[in-house]
Amino acid sequence: MILEDLLIFGSVMIVAWFLFTYNWPRMLLYVYKRAILVKGFGEGPVPINTLYTIPQKLFADPIAWQSGPGSNSVTAGMNRDTLITIGWLDLKKGPQALHVPDMNGRYYSVQFTNPSNNTVFAYVGKRTTGTEVGEYLITGPHWKGQVPSDMKQVSSPKNSVLVIGRVLVENDSDLPTSHHLTEQIRLTPLHQKGSL
């Protein structure tokens, strides 16, 4: 009887562990998505299909920003050498055009994450596409349109995409330049570019 109980208990624990391990990334991304879309970063929610760039003030003094009114703990893990721009895409209504400025050799990356399994499926950045000005079309899995000739396609396996951009800040005096470049990383619906 004791052996039978131990086998049942052990089986239940193994199943519970696999379920927890499998679902944990999804639960974390759901919380992160809700934090972005509902609370934002202390300045209100970040709408779907837009990018939010962390303010210079936050980067320069993250402790004061986090303790002030409207602070959000999502920013607590911010890097101290890169400015962040973040957004959540919904590609059901069509592709989004991503513009990146000429980074003039500076390190930057724009990461595209599939939130259903927490995997990165594409990067745009210094190591993958170079630092020249670039236009990229982010498309969902069922999109069948024509990619404009001046754009490169980033094909997403899902319609929901977490986008995280990072731009290197070399030193304190470089912050205004880095922030200006980060703000130039922009999303526009393809139909607003007049390319449908």
Which class do the helix and strand fractions yield?
alpha+beta
**Count of DSSP E strands?**
9
In CATH, the homologous superfamily goes by the name Domain of unknown function DUF1254
Q: How many H/I helices? A: 4
Shape assignment = globular
CATH topology: Immunoglobulin-like
Q: Can you give the helix content as a percent range?
A: 25-40%
Beta-strand residue fraction: 25-35%
Spans where pLDDT lies below 50 across 5 or more residues: 64-77
Order of helices and strands: HEHHEEEEEEEHE
Strand order of the largest sheet: 1-2-8-4-5
Task: Outline the structure in words.
- The protein has 196 residues and is an alpha+beta fold.
- The protein has one domain: Immunoglobulin-like (Sandwich).
- The protein is 30% helix and 27% strand.
- It is built from four helices and nine strands.
- The protein has helices spanning 2-39, 56-60, 62-67, 175-183, and strands spanning 52-53, 82-90, 96-100, 108-114, 119-125, 134-139, 152-155, 160-168, 186-189.
- The strands form two sheets. It has a five-stranded antiparallel sheet.
- It is globular.
- It starts with a helix and ends in a 7-residue tail after the last strand.
- Residues 64-77 have low confidence and may be disordered.
